[in-house]
Amino acid sequence: MRAVTFQAANEVRVEEKPEPVVTTADEALIRVEVSGICGSDLHIYHGRVPVEQGFTIGHEYVGTVLEAGDAVDRVAVGDRVLGCFHTACATCVACLRGDYHRCERQRTFGHGSHLGDLQGAQAELLLVPRANLTLRRVPEGMSDEAALFAGDVMGTGYHAVAHAGMRSGDTVAVLGLGPVGLCAVQAALAGGAVRVFAIDSVAARLEMAASFGATPIHLTEEEPKKAVRSATDGRGVDVVVDAVGDPAPLAMAISLCRDAGTVSGIGAYAGKGEVPLGLAWLKGLQLRLGLANVIAHVDRVLGLIEAGRLDPAPLVTHHMKLDDAAEAYEIYDNREALKIVLTP
Ligand SMILES: [Zn+2]
Ligand SMILES: [Zn+2]
User: Fold this and answer.
1) CB 18, CB 125: distance < 8 Å
2) How far, in Å, is the centroid of ligand 1 from the Cα of 233?
3) Cα(106) to centroid of ligand 2, in Å?
4) How far apart, in whole angstroms, are the C-alpha atoms of residue 66 and residue 22?
5) Which pTM does this prediction carry?
6) Residue spans of beta strands (DSSP E) within 69-150
7) Which of 59, 174, 215, 243 suits 292 as a labelling partner, its CA being 20 to 30 A distant?
8) Largest pairwise CA distance in the chain
């Protein structure tokens, strides 16, 4: 089968690889119908996240079940399914708490041996362990590319809002309008936010957020703090989502949040940085950080997409062939695309 493999920094290749086979009762083999290229794939592409040469990458996928082990009973051969970007064991202490994203035996698709040694989804075939927990049937009538978002990007945007404890009637600000930020905008509005301020420096992304119903604020051409304050009687918003994952936007999130509000950091922070902790303490803020618990949210997210309350379709800017993956990664790396969907 053909698969997109990591070769070296800034180099991926479509290679012929052996077909995976079901060897364990909880595994399913799927024929991949569509896969996505994600921001976290770029970390691999740039060599910041170490992956072995020749490892198949990709972790967003929709496919058809070709074969299933004896213990797989929630999906069946022939089902069209979507998957979550990682697997979880369902029996460790974290899983028993429902914290699947912190599973002690978590394995992430397409991230090399250090994250569970699970080959990726940018391929013709994919072996899915823990299929009962990892896979869901795609609801009737839902497109492959809409379903693709439920197991990763939309699940992550939803988590950013849910993890903040956002309530109907709240005001929200979202910093960074990449795919996750834009999904967080939708999730906040679907959850009953009365006003969502969407902050970025790319005009097209601000326009898209506005088309979803958000109030766009240009990061540098406007003054986000002033704009948010004046629209909230000087108080700031109830919830701020940092979908960037750097100290600077986190500092801005702290300044935009009202007293005793919540800052939800969904962007991937790395290393150290300075943030105004004193201000966060004085304001009595809650900081909620970390990777999204997508397995816990996937059914609600699918339900909201099915009901038309969430709609990831506008985020797909490019449809490309799996064979053109090298070009697709270049386009994505140049920030010319919001979401690229690959078809084998
Ligand atoms: Zn992803
Ligand atoms: Zn577990």
Assistant:
1) no
2) 37
3) 6
4) 10
5) 0.96
6) 80-83, 86-87, 107-108, 125-128, 135-137
7) 215
8) 62
